[in-house]
Amino acid sequence: MSVHPVELQRLADQQLSLTWSDGVEQMISYRRLRDSCPCATCRQPDPPQPADGGLRVLSPAETQPLDIVAMSPVGNYAYHIQFSDGHSTGIFTFDHLRRLGEVPDD
Length: 106
Ligand SMILES: [Zn+2]
Description:
single chain; alpha+beta; NE0471 N-terminal domain-like; three-stranded antiparallel sheet; 4 helices; 32% strand; binds zinc ion
């Protein structure tokens, strides 16, 4: 039987605290969640850099500290996470969240 989160908490330093049904506690940063968003758009390769050496300009939302605006259950296997940068198409399965929490932040 697979485990599922029994408690989710947003911590002050942009970390999500997860407590699992097997008693394991994990912390995952919002940035890490956002960077590992499993949706089709985020899984595409990065767009090519401008050929003239210019760098991609950050949108205003990207320069703000990342936050989780909303997090809601999807069925009994995943969470839908809405980020403060306007991105909200990611469905994070419990397996995916658990794996993220098992690998330490760099
Ligand atoms: Zn995404």
